[in-house]
Amino acid sequence: MHDSQVAVRDPPLDQEKREPSYGQELLDRLELGDDPMHIERAHAFKVPPQKGSKTVVEPPGGTIDIDRARDTLVRGVVDNADSDKEIPVTFRFEEEDPDRENDTRDLMMEYAFGDEDDASQSAATLALKLSRSMDERTDECLFVVTAISDPERPGYREVSSWTFPNEEAFTFEVHEGQAKIDTDSDVFSRDSDFRKAATFGGRDTHTGFLQGYVLDLQANRASRDVANYWLNLFLDSMLAISDPQGTKKLIQTVRETFDKTHRDQTREQLMSGLTNLRTQENATTSFVQFAEGYLDLEAKEEFLSNAPDNIPLNSPFTVDTDQLEKRVQYRVYTLDSGIQVTTSMSEENGAVQVIEQNGQRRLRLEDVIKNERIKSRR
Amino acid sequence: MSASSPDVSRDKVLEKYCSIEPKLVELKQNIQEEFSDLLSDLDNIDYVSFRVKRPESFIEKAFDRAGPDYEFPLEQIEDQVAGRIITYFRDDLEAVKKILQENFRFVESTRRGPDDVQQFGYEGHHLNFNIPPHLEPHSWGDIEEKPQTFEIQIRTLMMHAWIEPQHQYHYKGGAELDEDGKRKLFWIASQNWGADQIYNELWRNYFKR
Questions:
Q1: Are strands B149-156 and A211-216 parallel, antiparallel or unpaired?
Q2: Which of A194, A237, B120, B142 has the fewest CB atoms lying closer than 10 Å?
Q3: Considering the entire predicted model, what is its pTM?
């Protein structure tokens, strides 16, 4: 890795190249004074974790008065429309099922297009499903679900759902010079990184509500395992970018950056990053994670500018080692002495030769030293 | 409101389809490139081909042909971009399907074939995949009404040899077959089924290294 420490910041996105996400579109239209969404209905429930419970309790809740809560709901949608954190997902379907059954999808479509009674029932069923997906590692949460229409898109609906974790807070009163504090357990955090969001949309057809977005604010592996209840168990969904495709596109971007860059440091960091991924078991990464984990500021900008159009930079994937082995064309030689030599990605490298001598394969390396440094372990 | 009702004008739909056709072509190219790369290591692929549905064919499906009513044909008709993968042997069908399902997210994956063991007829694997974000054409998000999926058919050479001529002339062309004609047609299907079985045995027992 590069010796000098550099501050890592978010790279400026090439706005002409990258299309705005759903969330950014929403923000843009709100800023223009548009009314981009008409809230058809909204429900809220207090959801306890009940995964594996023998006795299951229906989460309490019901309809929200939209007129009274409109600002809160709109702000909720806007707050969660964080284009950098949105990750595209698709519902999971079974083979040999022409009816495309998926419980969560069916419930969301019922919520979007059904009458008031059906919608209320669907919302309650979704809340119960969420409850049964959450184990004791997850706090009780506020679950809010809304159905939104767009006057410019006849027949189109979007169902957005959020969870906000429970947070005990103080209440404070002063009465006749006496202060009183108490705790209130019915408070839920709007800004917590543990909140979740998902949006699916479409028309009431065979092809509606197939794909959507989730908001995932938890980037590290440990919290991801916990957060998987949201994607896998509750939404019954998968990330839109598969592991092999994510890995392939990452490697292609690394190669392109390697070929285009004029910086040796960039090349070295890219190589180091791939080597690291190769040696980890079941490594999970994303374009942004790879860039922030292995590249300095300039290399990060180069790398991300070469990422394919429309690839969601934050969408995580598990590194597919088959793809890595197949597509990364460099070799690492470990010699008898313990010295390790990694060749570059160039197809021909005359400085490195493998020769056969006395039945042994030997590595011969001779080149002009360009850079030399001493590294030490702490 | 259905595509066949006067409110959803045929001309308007055709106009919209023609306006998105260049984007469909771009989508087709992206998908084709990706599929060709994915399948390049597999033996026994005869060919991989993709096409964008011609406007006249789209309109015929949306309005004229007997079938489901389409209220939003530009979204609901899922073979606007479609591909076909032809393999040599039956054993390869699963291998191809597996690779595709590992890489892309299907919304439907069905094996088509006769319901009754006493029957012979069309066989193949049909899959509808979500269009993944990284294969979307430029400015895809600007199009309001558009397909969410693309369709893939996987068949053997023998399956393809049976379906193609009759699809052209009987199913789409409307050629009428009397009882004798139908028997001959399905006799061919049975022969091709048999040839597929034997070829597959040859592959397993002799050709495969």
A1: unpaired
A2: B142
A3: 0.83
